[in-house]
Amino acid sequence: MSKLIIENVGKVFPAQRGGQPTRALTPTTLSVADNDFITILGPSGCGKSTLLRIIGGLETASEGRILLDGAPVSGPGADRGFVFQSYTLFPWLTVIENIAFGLREKGVPERERLDLARDWAGRVGLSAFVDHFPKQLSGGMQQRTAIARALANDPKILLLDEPFGALDNQTRALMQEMLLGIWEREQKTVLFVTHDIEEAIFVGSRVVVMSARPGRIKADITVDLPHPRPYTIKTSPEFVALKERLVEEIRVEAVLAAEVH
Amino acid sequence: MKPLQPVSGGARIGYGVAFFAVFVLAWSAATFGGYVQRLFLADPLTMLREGYSLLVQYGFAFDIGMTIWRVVGGFVLAVIVALPLGILMGAYKPVEAFLEPFVSFARYLPASAFIPLLILWAGIGEAQKLLVIFIGSVFQLILMIAVAVGGVRRDLVDAAYTLGASDSSVVRRVLLPNAAPEIAEIFRLVLGWAWTYVIVAELIGSSSGIGHMITDSQALLNTGQIIFGIIVIGLIGLVSDFLFKAVNQRLFPWAKA
């Protein structure tokens, strides 16, 4: 059964200073199966982040509705974990306190929430850094903490908005492997927005390609690569063939987007 | 010198002390050299002698204590009022829309101009002194605290909401800790301004305090005492500033890079 159903969800930003209202997202329909890992791939400004923020409840849809386990979504909530592209750890909390933020909100007793948070810090490889403040961490470590913070809440779905976008290539590759490893072990439903084609194929079980603004779903491609996926898979013929196909799809959109702007 | 090139810690202290030395040297040259009449400006040694006799013979320590108590008392009262109002204004936009225009207007009302009115209302006792400090600080505090609280990064608030935070916990667990170091810094700044108000309040209608001593010394043409009083104020300001900075660094180790 579908975990998440996106039903004709569209977004129009209201007119500013007498200009025309801007449509960011044409009504889009998508259903996400339980424990699926979907990557949403598109050029900058195609409305993919807008869609994710609507699912996260951080923005309201102009039309359509979103159902999570059959219940309509209104406003942000702990059932949808969110990881942002920008570094959003609370600077005044240590790594472990950051991870435990949502658990405290749920009223989990202190001992228990610190145990859970320590456990999650371990799973993202930060056991040695639990008492560090965010400013003492590298960008990659901060994003690992952010992922642990979202997952410690045990959300029904994990939403990631270009979480590795600000990282260098090597760190980014390691983070992809770590995220994939967590997903393979934990079995979570994941929606991952990116503009990086290789990343979309490597971590995803299904790649949804979005068109240039106004965004709409242009292609929906199943990634038939086995799990667990080692990083060496990126050079396999199947991977390369898929990449070539997506490069073509995205290129057309990027050209269109460049013409519009 | 290269622009923006940092100086080492030792050199920084050296430069700082050097300016004080230059200042005292210039002052000594002007007074001991006879370029300025002693009637108008006492030399550094006279100043120190006068200061010693003030402390030992005239109980100046009591005046210093009175002035400190007035500044701290009036400032604490202002904080008690300004902190909740500033937080509410920073967090909730309708409250801001309601209060901001008035507070912005009120903060330009000079505290010293209220002194005659406050003497009519509250006499020349301690209440009047505290009120001058209070009026001088409270509106500045409210506005600056509101800006600090409202200046939170939007994505931190978004992150808190996606972690299941309620509206009130966003204020308690995100807006407040986020603004705390800046609020502490605002306290440090406004306390410095409060010092200038207290002296003005003590110049008029007062029987104790550093400001009172300064007016008395003016009547006696004792510039040594006046300068000593001014320097004491400067030193107290320097010490309180230093203490505030040290406490802030202890309290908010996460804030500075």
From TrEMBL, chain A:
Domain ABC transporter: 4-237
Entry-linked SMART domains: AAA
Gene Ontology molecular function: any one: ATP binding
One Pfam family here: ABC_tran
InterPro entries the UniProt entry points to: AAA+_ATPase, ABC_transporter-like_ATP-bd, ABC_transporter_ATP-bind, P-loop_NTPase
Keywords on record: ATP-binding, Nucleotide-binding, Transport
Tree of life domain: Bacteria
Gene3D superfamilies in UniProt: P-loop containing nucleotide triphosphate hydrolases
Family indicated by similarity: Belongs to the ABC transporter superfamily.
Name of this chain's protein: NitT/TauT family transport system ATP-binding protein/sulfonate transport system ATP-binding protein
Species in which this protein is naturally found: Bosea psychrotolerans
Automatic annotation (TrEMBL), chain B:
Domain ABC transmembrane type-1: 64-244
Keywords: Cell membrane, Membrane, Transmembrane, Transmembrane helix, Transport
Top-level lineage group: Bacteria
One Pfam family matching this protein: BPD_transp_1
Subcellular location(s) per record: Cell membrane
Regions that span the bilayer: 12-36, 68-92, 104-124, 130-152, 194-214, 226-244
Membrane topology: Multi-pass membrane protein
Gene Ontology CC, one term: plasma membrane
Main location: membrane
InterPro entries, A to Z: MetI-like (IPR000515), MetI-like_sf (IPR035906)
Single biological process term from Gene Ontology: alkanesulfonate transmembrane transport
Family: Belongs to the binding-protein-dependent transport system permease family.
Protein task: Probably part of an ABC transporter complex. Probably responsible for the translocation of the substrate across the membrane.
Protein name: NitT/TauT family transport system permease protein
Organism: Bosea psychrotolerans
